[in-house]
Amino acid sequence: MNLCARIENLNVSAGAQNILNGLSLECPDRKITVLVGRSGSGKTTLLRSLNRLNDCFPALRTSGRVELKIGGLLRAVGDVPLPELRRRAGMVFQSPNPLPLSVARNVLLPLQLTLGVKGTEAEGRMKQALEQVGLWKEVAGRLNQPAASLSGGQQQRLCLARTLALEPDVLLLDEPTASLDRHAAEVVEDLLLSLKERYPIVMVSHSLIQARRLADRLAVLRGGALCRTLDAAELPAGGEGEVFIERLL
Ligand SMILES: Nc1ncnc2c1ncn2[C@@H]1O[C@H](COP(=O)(O)OP(=O)(O)OP(=O)(O)O)[C@@H](O)[C@H]1O
């Protein structure tokens, strides 16, 4: 199996609390891996270990091996310079977090600061990224308006466009539709299904309906350990699939 991530014997602790216990997981390339589990089971901590975001929390201690496919090769994330890792493993969070700038500057500024791309080239890339997330037609006439004036679903797609403009190798999504209404969530879900042809996706989801709809591979966490991985084909069809996942949690 071609992999976008390989995790071996990952342990994360905070003082005496073990958050992840010897967790090993392989995530397929160009597919969607969905992490599910009860609240507090360690899903976000696992996701954050992929781009070393846990390093931002001084209380957390990490051991084990985490590899991501970067530039076509699986590389230990500890060996990748942080700015490169954060760009290559693009992350989108639960609530949309656009910069307090215009729609256009939200994509143009990171392009300039991270890749040094400006002017016409940057504008071309911005348009391409906004098209990729299906936002271009909606915002073409309001590029100079504040990003905060967009709807929640549009803001989340803008955040995704900002990430895609930086040409990531993998997308890490932490409950990307949690703050959206059902319709906006479905728009983002459809978008993710279309993006997986180009980008492997590892995402956390609380919604079993969403997990069943999007996952090619499911990783079920319980108490900081991986209790089961399964392919979508192993799930019963329809609503039975959700019941099946619920029983595993
Ligand atoms: N920076 C931190 N410092 C101390 N403890 C932490 C830290 N981050 C997470 N934890 C603890 O680790 C455990 C797992 O948290 P995590 O956010 O990974 O779970 P989760 O499965 O994503 O939960 P939820 O579904 O509620 O978001 C929790 O008990 C949490 O309090």
UniProtKB/TrEMBL annotation:
<feature type="domain" description="ABC transporter">
    <location>
        <begin position="5"/>
        <end position="248"/>
    </location>
</feature>
<dbReference type="InterPro" id="IPR003439">
    <property type="entry name" value="ABC_transporter-like_ATP-bd"/>
</dbReference>
<dbReference type="GO" id="GO:0005524">
    <property type="term" value="F:ATP binding"/>
</dbReference>
<dbReference type="GO" id="GO:0005315">
    <property type="term" value="F:phosphate transmembrane transporter activity"/>
</dbReference>
<protein>
    <submittedName>
        <fullName>Phosphate ABC transporter ATP-binding protein</fullName>
    </submittedName>
</protein>
<dbReference type="Pfam" id="PF00005">
    <property type="entry name" value="ABC_tran"/>
</dbReference>
<dbReference type="InterPro" id="IPR027417">
    <property type="entry name" value="P-loop_NTPase"/>
</dbReference>
<dbReference type="GO" id="GO:0016887">
    <property type="term" value="F:ATP hydrolysis activity"/>
</dbReference>
<dbReference type="GO" id="GO:0035435">
    <property type="term" value="P:phosphate ion transmembrane transport"/>
</dbReference>
<dbReference type="InterPro" id="IPR017871">
    <property type="entry name" value="ABC_transporter-like_CS"/>
</dbReference>
<keyword id="KW-0547">Nucleotide-binding</keyword>
<dbReference type="InterPro" id="IPR003593">
    <property type="entry name" value="AAA+_ATPase"/>
</dbReference>
<dbReference type="InterPro" id="IPR005670">
    <property type="entry name" value="PstB-like"/>
</dbReference>
<keyword id="KW-0813">Transport</keyword>
<dbReference type="GO" id="GO:0016020">
    <property type="term" value="C:membrane"/>
</dbReference>
<keyword id="KW-0067">ATP-binding</keyword>
